[in-house]
Amino acid sequence: MTPDRRLAGLEDRARLRLPAPVFEYVAQGARDGHTTAAAPGSWRQWPLHPHVLRDVTRVDPGTVVLGRTTAVPFGVAPTTLQRAIHPDGELAIARAVAAADGLMVVSSNAGTTFADLATTGVRWWVQCYLPADRTLALPLLRRAVEAGADAVVLTVDTPVVGTKYSTDPQGTVIWDVVDPSMLRVNFDPGYDDAPGSEKALDLGPHDIDWLRSTTGLPVVVKGVLRGDDAVRAVDAGASAVWVSNHGGRQLDGAVSTASALPGVVAAVHGRAQVYVDGGIRTGIDVVTALALGADHVFLGRLPLWALVDGEHGVRETLSELRDQTLETLRLTGAATVPDTRGLVVVEGAKGL
Ligand SMILES: Cc1cc2nc3c(=O)[nH]c(=O)nc-3n(C[C@H](O)[C@H](O)[C@H](O)COP(=O)(O)O)c2cc1C
């Protein structure tokens, strides 16, 4: 099989190898799954207008993310339950990302301690949700800062968890089969029973400033789909906004990130960085997102499917995606990421 086709086949391999509830947990979207299903093809709504007669002898796919260069323009998005896919879980992904000189965002629900993760030497950010009683978030944030997190990613699209349906005839869901020690190891014991530990329903721009001053880290706001919200986040002190619909796992019917990205980029107008995830499965998707103005691109399910083969599988996948990205850059006449701007024609992105 050619390398490119292998990436496309990762999900099918994972379906065969993983216990059914684990596969379903990763693959599923909220409700009827429309937003999840639409994502992978959505980048093709933007045809590329390649340059020719340009020197692409040397091509550099690196990007600068919050002031530091990463060797590849894609990183790993935060996802729960990596240890249910492979016993090495987050550690396998971290080692593979470190080898690619990339960036990993670690879910607050991770099953690996931040201190253990830091031993891999990976550059990493911590992702968090804020609870109704904000002070309950402090111990986890403190552990992340102490272990060397570079930034904090506040996920803002989850005031409640979007409903998902099980297709298992017996109704077995992931939580029936997963060992609870595989997740949430960075929280204080008893966190979930503490009054006020439920997700905040009153999240607002002031939380961005609170998070920044509490942690001393730059704040990235994840789950933005509208230009006006992106501006509110930036006005409140966000260093970056992350265009995401949570892989379609929250609001089914939400706009694709491929459609939302140009409006957010236009509204932010260079005042902060803009990242994106959602349905990124090929190097062509990566370059299309960069061409639309994303400063970095994140991968959710792709590294999870690859994790079935542990660190080796993730390394291979990241390396193939890098190769595809390099080929696409050459074929579009772009020697660097800034050269990709203008490869896609966007009419009248107004910030919504
Ligand atoms: C199994 C799974 C678990 C996830 N867990 C989290 C999480 O803990 N925090 C978060 O902000 N996003 C979470 N996400 C959303 C991802 O960070 C990302 O936004 C999404 O997966 C991107 O879409 P893609 O899977 O099509 O690449 C999760 C996604 C999946 C598939």
TrEMBL record:
Coiled coil: none annotated. Its cofactor is FMN. SUPFAM superfamilies: FMN-linked oxidoreductases (SSF51395). Residues 1-350 form the FMN hydroxy acid dehydrogenase domain. It comes from the Bacteria. Keywords: Flavoprotein, FMN, Oxidoreductase. Gene3D superfamilies: Aldolase class I. CDD domains: alpha_hydroxyacid_oxid_FMN. InterPro entries: Aldolase_TIM, Alpha-hydoxy_acid_DH_FMN, FMN-dep_DH, FMN_HAD, FMN_hydac_DH_AS. This is Alpha-hydroxy acid oxidase. Its EC number is 1.-.-.-. It comes from Nocardioides plantarum.
